[in-house]
Amino acid sequence: MPMRVEHADLVVVGAGPAGLSAATEAARAGVRVIVVDESPVPGGCLRFELQELFGPGDHVEWQVGVEEAHHLACAAEAAGVCVIPGASVWGIFPGWEVYVTPVDPASAVPDVIRAPALIVATGAAQNPMVLPGWTLPGVLNAGAAQFLLNVYRIRPGTRAVVVGIDPLALVVARQLTFGGVEVKAILPPVPGPYVIGSFQPDAVTRSLDGSLPVWGIPLLLRRAVMSIEGRDRVEGVRVVDLDADGHIIPGGEETWEVDAAVTVAGLFPLVNLILSVGCPVVHIPELGGHVPLYGPDLETPLSGLFVAGSLTGVVGSPIAAAQGRLAGITAARHLGKLQAGRAAQEQERIRASLSEARARAFEFLPDADRGMARLAGLWDRRAT
Amino acid sequence: MAEQHRVAYHPVLGATPDGQPISFTFDGRDIHGRKGDTIASALWALGLTVLGQGAGGDPRGLYCGIGHCFSCRVTVDGVRGVRACLVLIRPGMRVERCVEDGDANAR
Amino acid sequence: MRSTDVAVVGAGIIGASIAYYLARAGVSVVLIDRVRAPAGATASATSAGGVRQQGRVGAELPLSIESIRMWDSLADELEMDIRYRRGGMAVCTSDPASLAGLRARVARERSAGVDVRFVEGEELHRLVRGLSSRIVAASYCPTDGHADPMRATRAFSLAAERRGARVLWGCELRGLRRDGARVIGIETSQEPIPCSTVIVAAGAWTPAVAEHCGVPLPMVRPGFIQMMATARYPHILDAVLGWIGHGISLKQVSTGGFVIGGGWPGRGALDRYETRLLPGSMAKSAATTVALFPALAGVPIVRAWVGAESFCRDDFPIISDIPSHPGLIVAAGFSGHGFALAPGLGWRMAEWVTTGRRPEILGGFDIRRFQTGGGDSWQNSIA
Prior knowledge:
The structure holds three protein chains of three kinds.
Chain A: E1 5-7, E2 10-13, H1 17-28, E3 33-36, E4 50-54, E5 60-64, H2 65-78, E6 82-84, E7 87-93, E8 97-102, E9 112-114, E10 117-120, E11 124-126, E12 139-141, H3 142-151, E13 159-163, H4 167-178, E14 182-187, H5 203-207, E15 211-214, E16 217-220, E17 223-229, E18 236-242, E19 248-257, E20 260-263, E21 267-269, H6 272-277, E22 281-284, E23 289-292, E24 305-307, H7 317-334, H8 340-360, H9 368-380
Parallel strand pairs in A: 1-9, 2-3, 2-10, 3-6, 10-24, 12-20, 13-14, 13-20
Antiparallel strand pairs in A: 4-5, 7-8, 8-9, 11-21, 15-16, 17-18, 18-19, 22-23
Chain B: E1 9-10, E2 14-15, E3 21-26, E4 29-34, H1 39-45, E5 52-53, E6 59-60, E7 73-76, E8 79-83, E9 94-99
Chain C: E1 6-9, H1 13-24, E2 29-33, H2 43-46, E3 50-51, H3 60-71, H4 74-78, E4 89-93, H5 99-111, E5 117-120, H6 121-127, E6 137-141, E7 145-146, H7 149-162, E8 166-169, E9 173-179, E10 182-188, E11 193-194, E12 197-200, H8 206-212, E13 220-230, E14 240-243, E15 248-252, E16 258-265, E17 267-269, E18 274-276, H9 279-292, E19 301-312, E20 318-322, E21 325-332, H10 342-355
Parallel strand pairs in C: 1-2, 1-12, 2-8, 4-14, 12-21
Antiparallel strand pairs in C: 3-7, 4-6, 5-6, 9-10, 10-11, 13-16, 13-19, 14-15, 15-16, 17-18, 20-21
Helix pairs in contact in C: 1-7, 1-10, 3-10
């Protein structure tokens, strides 16, 4: 069977805010761009976001991810970018040769896309929270819960717990209540060797007892989820008491009846694909885990390979989009489509706005600055 | 079958539009979802959360929602291993639970 | 310092098996590996896991017959489920011109004691359901089978430890210590290990390790082999399948997936433990698989990987002492068909070390076969 081969100047893997922004920027410079993404609708994880923006006085505005994503996709289309949804990249080989397979078996996608430049913007995924019962239907990580609620308008259940305490847990808990779900509590999981997100007590939290109501939802610091129960689906969670140091107090076990458990255990960059291309990858916990090695203009040690978005270290969508624009310019410059002086100007402008945005933005990772500094050091010392 | 889990009205997003109904089958049963639903969302709206069975007999379904974990894999029109969270429903689509064999000699 | 009799360099299936049987025989063993075995880019991690007697030539034939007998009770011996399945093996052909040769091979193997027979037509298609109609005949051995190479390799090193062997991960051989010509120990990246025998079973890295010992092995070269595995599927295939002239090996493992091998090429760089898939090679091997067993059309491939194997010029392993370095033994160059031989080889190696005499069954693997002309300086005369 003959293979369907497409050609472009630039392939972008990932149609999230980073990938779409990169594609649009490059296309405006005259680059022929093809973007591929596994999802049926472009926008990546931006689509499930629902963010509150506080304005002057009591003014509250909501940023609806689905709409933001739609704008980005339209801008890409207007710039002449070809976006191929429902396409899974299973291998990338030098050249670049990007091998693709359809996610929906009834769809047709190209078999191979060849391009001299490649931007990998595969984003980040949520860490699993491995508790007994974590594979039961009804257990969702925070991203899946947000997708159901904010994109498909579906309640994950009628009565839920949010397991894990971080800013995202509070956001998800609130979004659950918007969907009409009763959130019994936000509480940590018990500590354990495979559990990410168990509660780390500190001076402040040790002094807090009982529960804090957050938007009317109890935030518990002295109780933890030990296991998720149910036969065919989530039917309940077993909860234990914790002392001020986060240790289990025996004897206080209780079962709560819930039909959904949303776990929140942090995010990590999805480096599988870029690893398989041969890009060096470094472990920087302050950025979420393993990240590709990249320089200030989002170039990697491999010629013609660039990165953007949460793949480079977990970031919010505005920063991902700015990074995308930077990577798009860098790629266009590499392809000779942008005159060097003009490109350098654009890159500097975006880099400046990026540092500003980082200073202001809601950071998923509090020590990201330190992580970025370490990465910059590794980039400077890389073997050339 | 009633869409027991569909949110009719959202305080920020407003009323959920009705959406064009799309019929497909799940393990031979007639299912109605809405245009724009994925297989996973259409089924979840109806409270159908068990999408398959793992090798140990354990029930499994949607977990990560972004196509990363493969826990939501189903058989679509005879093709195994299709991620329900990433595939939009199509009229006449035949979806079946994926029941996996464990140790062949144990059967 | 603890006293060691034998240092085994390389904890892949061969080295780990040797270490186990030595330890079981009461020999004081240290097993070292540069990384943590079985490591990704190695032959043990890339083996198709075939455990067969048929298709063996020369000195491999008696060793494989002996080894297969041992596989039957290996899980109990090593106290781990290594997923050994004895579902038979059918080496198939679609070419009528090959039938005479196939019958002759079967006759030869039968007379050597292998339980193999020639099957064709309806009988074959009843025996192995799902075979393409192109397949006209096969040599079928009901006692051939397969096992999980990662588990088996790990099972051997764990069992060796339980029997008293010391296992050192992240330990690289740096040099040999000698008293005159006689080996008295090894230098490593960790501690020096005084010992009277050193067995190098480092797979594709053997020539490099041997170089550190001052022993050139020009007849051993690395080759990169590519494997693929499919998603789980209901159980439909018991036998391991091969296809003469098409270089494919296909089996369905106990967890349901199909494993596709057959010597398809990949690429890699040994020193960096780097490997690279070749999409053309993957496509051809997938197409060949479907041509042999049509039920697999459309079954997703979930994993593909490449590892380095050591190939010997004449396609037979070197299991031999090194004449210029008494005390040094090399066990490498298995050329893609060493997995099944591991238990038998390990057991016979223990016999060699404990009795001081090389068992006859290993005689055919002597490195001296590469000698051209006579004399002691075998290295200088290796072609």
